[in-house]
């Protein structure tokens, strides 16, 4: 598991092993939402998870006071977690409502969760009421009120009839946002007695209905209501106000009365509706705006209009905002004595109040800390001390909500650690980007230095070193392949890591598939040959019309081709070849056209004929419309037209592509530039190719104007210490916009009070300004000017006059030898005034003068390290031990190197030697070996001796006991006696100096195998005993037991001998032998190469045949007795069943059915009033409905009928108030007996789910 610590600009991903050793204050990782509505039928689970080192402990508060979890047997806290599980079985869920907060703490601080408000979901019953019929005359408006009971969360409202069918809605009749049903005007068709409002409560999965409403519509001939202009029913009046929170969804509603039915339209006063975020609903009566922003505030006008007039209503929208983060507090890791800052920036409307706490205690009430102060809402930490780690809480709140952010401050002192895996290989394709990681951690923050093959990597055009220390090569080439080293350093130490970059050749398709026209039943072949990096192995995928090839044997995929046999019409399409490697891919496509195979000549497709009849219309100052007539397509549809132009004023005879238009167009609108003499021509393109150009149009000249652009790519280059060169890209004739083009070049010294010096130039692209001071900043502009005026105001470009070589060498050069391969060098920086340019850094040259042990054959070439910028110290890696070195330093800038410092000579101490050379092992006799070697090539000091270790190796490569010998430095061979004969030995040899042992070299040798005596000499007598399926072989043997085997084979067969290993015994059992067969057997001893060196005489054994032991079971006495007992038991069971049946004489079911034709009229038992035997007791199981919430708002005994039961064939009875309650989405759980009712009644489940 990887933990990411973000500490200011420190990002470190710590692997699990490292995390285990780093102290960390608690961090909340998971918690329940702030507003948590619970289901009263399920256990309450309040989440709180946190991490930290050591792992935090957890506690809770409830309604601001400590919540003792252990005292409540219904509450359990999960192990190693703060998550609470509250068992509410047998309890009322509202008993656990309240505000909960979790605290996670360890010895480094305390983190707090949000305040989690626990509320029980509620679905109260509709209040009992008597609804009188509503009488309204035709044409008048009407509102049917729903007014459902207030639930938590609020219910979803919909209107249906007695048949559970959704009431139709339209622009005249619609449901308002509050659930009421509005009629803009009433028709006679609205006369009905089953307007029923339903409320669905999502959490409890129940639906309740209001009592049906009856509407009586009077015909207007008795009480006429004439046509009228619109007035607003909702909202009433001319103006209203609506408040919405930023980020929420805004819904504005306008419902109008009128006859005819008014049309509703919306607009925003002094603005437009937000593009892409608004929509209309409920027949234009509702305007919905999602993801509200501050700009959505203001006045919105809804307009109602019919043929008699119009009316409008203004809704003023006020946008408020709950607090939101601008900059949330971030975790800090500081080293002792370091400083840092915790920021907490939030915004909202109104502006939120920001307060700080530390470890859950308001900061003003916490202990005073001299290293901590608050400025402008931020916490400033300075000179922090070990042990001052803590968790800080920032609370930003206003009347619409709050934000709580935890951020810990951990004070650590950690040496650098490189977290990127060592020796990782990065592979990229040539000319792509390469990213080499160097993830590190340390406190203080480590400094990262990159090297390539021992040379320092400089951040510049070639390499980019990112803030997270990743090294980027923007365009990787094969020359960039190699070994890269990153070194992480801080005041507590250094750590290096090596990675490797491999730059591969790209994958390219050399021979692409070509367009094919094939006759039906013919063959089509597409080629796709590729060039790729030899270390990559591309795969090939063929697609047809961007889909997989059909699963058809006619499609044959080769290594570099696709062949389609017996081509059919449906094979026509676009075929794509994709060549993939693990790093890149290339693809190419071609069309296949299938034509009918007839004796008539095939259709010849050719390039289209050129367009004709070019005409210029709609001529304006800077545009014109070009029209043309297409030429013949020549059996291949035209795909596009290419329009070209010639500028006979600036580039006569040169035709330039201007634009492309669809092959179905015959006109194009062309944008033109000033001061150009245009001629146009058109070319057509089909599958075969481009047509010939059309005849040119007549010439169209545009008027001159002042330039619209200035020269680009303006650069200021210091070419010499006393000059600057100004260069730019000249304008083309098309960009000049008029005659007399010149360039106004202006310059002045930066930060000096002097006027611009300007010079007009023509037909040039550079100018040299002389007489400038060395390396001085200048401001430069280049502006285009023609006879019609200057171009736009030019941008100011900054540059410097030329650099000169540095004049002073670094002083106070010191070398500190760290160990035999590493030294540290430091120097004093040169004064900037002597650099005469931009100081790029320092070059440290060092080379080996000689070895202190022997005379080197030739001096080593100097090595050079480059240190960037103002660095005045560095490390020298890869030094040779016990050697004398020379070193000097020089500063350098863009001009070159300055003078060299005086040489510093230093010596490296002794190190461990290199490996001994030419280790050999020679046979001497049966029990002796001679070990020979040569001294190491690199002594790296005075040799003090050699360490020789050796041990035997058996045939299973297991190692025997290890012996060690210390040898003098002048010895180069040794004879080892008393070794075990015919045995392989492994030898390990190290050279040693006072610094320790060097690398180990190894070799193996074998003592000479003594000559084999005659066959059987090592073996004595051999005996055997044979059973039905195995044989036991025993023998006498005086040789070693390590390689003894028993071999056997069927007599007179050509099968190979079977070999079984004997594990140091003189007896062996051969299993699995076949009865009646004869076998030849021998015992052999083998050497380490598995060659037989000793063997017994072959022994012939015969396995006896299997004797028959079968017995006739039918003649056994025990079997006859068992059969008689079973028969007797069956007879007794039959007698008992017959007696029971006679005692229980009840009249049959058929007689009951004849006596009671009505299945609902059934006999009752006299003793308990239940149905008689004919009644199935399963019919009296309670109906399975929704579970009643614990607040008692739904009485379980009133009605257990759910909508599911009703829809599945249940009784479907209603409560006294007309409601029906139950699960409308649960599974059917009733027995078959409960489903014997009529199934023809409409299912309320299907009806409800289709509308809700």
UniProtKB/TrEMBL annotation:
Keyword field contains Signal: yes
Major localisation: membrane
GO annotation, cellular component aspect: axon; plasma membrane
Record keywords, A-Z: Cell adhesion, Cell membrane, Disulfide bond, Glycoprotein, Immunoglobulin domain, Membrane, Repeat, Signal, Transmembrane, Transmembrane helix
GO BP annotation list: axon guidance; brain development
Basic and acidic residues bias spans: 1148-1168
Gene3D superfamilies linked to this entry: Immunoglobulins
TM helices/strands, residue ranges: 1118-1139
Ranges where the Fibronectin type-III domain occurs: 610-705, 710-804, 809-911, 915-1011, 1013-1105
One Pfam short name: Ig_3
Topology class, membrane: Single-pass type I membrane protein
An MF annotation (GO) of this entry: cell-cell adhesion mediator activity
Similarity section: Belongs to the immunoglobulin superfamily. L1/neurofascin/NgCAM family.
Protein name per UniProt: Neuronal cell adhesion molecule a
Organism in which the protein naturally occurs: Cyprinus carpio
């Amino acid at each position: 598991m990887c933990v990411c610590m973000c500490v200011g600009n420190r990002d470190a991903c710590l692997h699990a092993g490292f995390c285990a050793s780093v102290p960390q204050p608690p961090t909340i990782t998971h918690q329940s939402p702030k507003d948590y509505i619970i289901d009263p039928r399920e256990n309450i689970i309040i989440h709180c998870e946190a991490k930290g080192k050591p792992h935090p402990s957890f506690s809770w508060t409830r309604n601001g006071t400590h919540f003792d979890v252990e005292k409540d047997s219904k509450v359990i806290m999960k192990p190693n977690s703060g998550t609470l599980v509250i068992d509410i079985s047998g309890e009322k869920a509202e008993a656990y409502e309240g505000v909960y907060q979790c605290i996670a703490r360890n010895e480094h601080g305390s983190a707090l969760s949000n305040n989690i408000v626990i509320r029980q979901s509620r679905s109260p019953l509709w209040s009992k009421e008597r609804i009188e019929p509503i009488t309204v005359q035709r044409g008048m408006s009407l509102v049917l009120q729903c007014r459902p009971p207030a639930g938590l969360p609020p219910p979803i409202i919909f209107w249906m009839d007695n048949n559970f069918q959704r009431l139709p809605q339209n622009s005249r009749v619609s449901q308002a946002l509050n659930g009421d049903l509005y009629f803009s005007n009433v028709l006679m068709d609205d006369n009905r007695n089953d307007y029923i409002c339903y409320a669905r409560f999502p959490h409890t999965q129940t639906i309740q209905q209001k009592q049906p409403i009856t509407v009586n519509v009077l015909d207007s001939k008795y009480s006429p209501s004439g046509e009228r202009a619109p007035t607003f029913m909702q909202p009433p009046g001319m103006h209203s106000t609506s408040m919405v929170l930023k980020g929420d969804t805004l819904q504005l509603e306008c419902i109008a009365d009128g006859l005819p039915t008014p049309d509703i339209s919306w607009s925003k006063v002094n603005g437009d509706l937000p593009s892409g975020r608004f929509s209309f609903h409920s027949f234009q009566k509702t305007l919905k705006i999602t993801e509200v922003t501050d700009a959505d505030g203001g006045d919105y006008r809804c307009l109602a209009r019919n043929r008699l007039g119009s009316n409008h209503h203004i809704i003023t929208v006020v946008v408020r905002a709950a607090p939101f983060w601008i900059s949330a507090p971030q975790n800090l890791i500081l080293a002792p004595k370091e400083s840092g800052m915790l920021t907490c920036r939030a915004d909202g409307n109104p502006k939120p109040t920001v307060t700080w706490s530390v470890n859950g205690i308001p900061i003003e009430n916490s202990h005073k800390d001299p290293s901590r102060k608050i400025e402008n809402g931020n916490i400033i930490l300075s000179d922090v001390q070990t042990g001052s780690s803590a968790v800080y809480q920032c609370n930003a709140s206003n009347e619409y909500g709050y934000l709580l952010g935890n951020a810990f401050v951990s004070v650590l002192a950690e040496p650098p650690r490189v977290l990127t895996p060592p020796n990782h290989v990065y592979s990229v394709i040539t000319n792509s980007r390469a990213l080499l990681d160097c993830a590190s951690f340390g406190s203080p923050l480590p400094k990262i230095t990159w090297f390539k093959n021992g040379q320092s990597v400089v951040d510049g055009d070639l390499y980019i070193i990112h803030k997270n220390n990743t090294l980027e090569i923007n365009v990787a080439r094969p020359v960039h392949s190699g070994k890269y080293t990153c070194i992480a350093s801080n005041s507590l130490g250094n750590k290096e890591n090596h990675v490797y970059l491999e730059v591969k050749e790209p994958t390219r398709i050399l021979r692409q598939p070509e367009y094919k026209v094939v006759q039906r039943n013919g063959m089509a072949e597409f080629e796709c040959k590729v060039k790729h990096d030899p270390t990559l192995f591309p795969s090939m995928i063929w697609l047809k019309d961007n889909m997989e090839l059909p699963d058809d044997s006619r499609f044959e995929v080769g290594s570099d081709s696709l062949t389609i046999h017996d081509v059919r019409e449906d094979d026509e399409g676009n075929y794509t070849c994709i060549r993939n490697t693990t790093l890149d891919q290339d693809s190419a496509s071609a069309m296949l056209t299938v034509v009918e195979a007839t004796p008539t000549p095939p259709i010849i497709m050719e390039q289209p004929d050129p367009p004709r009849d070019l005409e210029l219309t709609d001529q304006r100052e800077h545009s014109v419309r070009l029209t043309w007539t297409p030429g013949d397509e020549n059996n291949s549809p035209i795909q596009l037209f290419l329009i070209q132009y010639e500028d006979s004023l600036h580039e006569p005879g040169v035709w330039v592509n201007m634009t492309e238009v669809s092959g179905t167009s015959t006109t194009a609108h062309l944008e033109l530039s000033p001061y150009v003499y245009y001629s146009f021509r058109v070319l057509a393109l089909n599958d075969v190719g481009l047509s010939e150009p059309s005849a040119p149009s007549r010439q169209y000249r545009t008027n001159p104007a002042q330039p619209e652009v200035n020269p680009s790519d303006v650069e200021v280059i210091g070419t010499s210490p006393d000059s600057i060169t100004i260069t730019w890209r000249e304008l083309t004739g098309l960009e000049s916009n008029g005659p007399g083009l010149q360039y106004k070049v202006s310059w002045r010294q930066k930060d000096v009070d002097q006027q611009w010096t300007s010079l007009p130039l023509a037909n040039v692209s550079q100018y040299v300004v002389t007489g400038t001071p060395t390396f001085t900043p200048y401001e430069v502009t280049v502006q285009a000017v023609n006879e019609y005026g200057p171009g736009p105001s030019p941008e100011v470009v900054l540059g410097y006059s030329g650099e000169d070589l540095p004049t002073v060498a670094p002083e106070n050069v010191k070398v500190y030898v760290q160990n035999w391969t590493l030294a540290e060098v430091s120097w004093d920086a040169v004064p900037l005034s002597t650099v005469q340019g931009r100081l790029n850094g320092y070059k440290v040259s060092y080379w080996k003068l000689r070895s202190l042990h022997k005379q080197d054959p030739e001096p080593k070439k100097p090595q050079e390290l480059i240190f960037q910028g103002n660095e005045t110290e560095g490390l020298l890696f890869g030094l040779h031990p016990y050697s004398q070195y020379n070193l000097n330093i020089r500063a350098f800038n863009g001009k070159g190197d300055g003078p060299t410092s005086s040489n510093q000579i230093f010596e490296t101490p002794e190190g461990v030697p290199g490996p001994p050379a030419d280790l050999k092992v020679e046979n001497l006799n049966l029990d002796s070996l001679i070990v020979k070697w040569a001294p190491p090539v690199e002594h790296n000091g005075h040799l003090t001796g050699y360490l020789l270790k050796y041990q035997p190796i058996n045939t299973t490569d297991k190692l025997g006991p290890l012996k060690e010998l210390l040898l003098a430095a002048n010895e180069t061979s040794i004879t080892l006696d008393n070794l075990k004969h015919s045995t392989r030995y492994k030898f390990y040899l190290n050279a040693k100096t006072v610094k320790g042992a060097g690398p180990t070299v190894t070799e193996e040798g074998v003592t000479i195998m003594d000559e084999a005596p005659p066959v059987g000499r090592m073996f004595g007598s051999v005996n055997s005993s044979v059973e039905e399926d195995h044989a036991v072989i025993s023998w006498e043997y005086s040789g070693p037991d390590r390689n003894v085997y028993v071999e056997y084979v069927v007599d007179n067969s050509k099968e190979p001998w079977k070999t079984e290993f004997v594990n140091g015994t003189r007896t062996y059992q051969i299993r699995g032998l076949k009865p009646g067969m004869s076998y030849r057997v021998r015992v052999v001893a083998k050497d380490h190469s598995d060659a037989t060196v000793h063997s017994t005489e072959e022994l012939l054994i015969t396995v006896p045949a299997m004797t028959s032991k079968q017995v006739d079971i039918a003649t056994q006495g025990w079997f006859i007795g068992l059969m008689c007992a079973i028969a007797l038991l069956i007879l007794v069971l039959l007698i008992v069943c017959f007696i029971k049946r006679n005692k229980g004489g009840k009249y049959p079911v058929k007689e009951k059915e004849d006596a009671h034709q009505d299945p609902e009229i059934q006999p009752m038992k006299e003793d308990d009033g239940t149905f008689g035997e004919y009644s199935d007791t399963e019919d009296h199981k309670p109906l399975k409905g929704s579970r009643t919430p614990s607040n008692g708002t739904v009485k379980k005994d009133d009605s257990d009928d759910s909508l599911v039961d009703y829809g599945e064939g249940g009784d479907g009875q209603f409560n006294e108030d007309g409601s029906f309650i139950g699960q409308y989405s649960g599974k059917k759980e009733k027995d078959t007996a409960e489903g014997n009712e009529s199934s023809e009644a409409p299912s309320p489940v299907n009806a409800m789910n289709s509308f809700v």
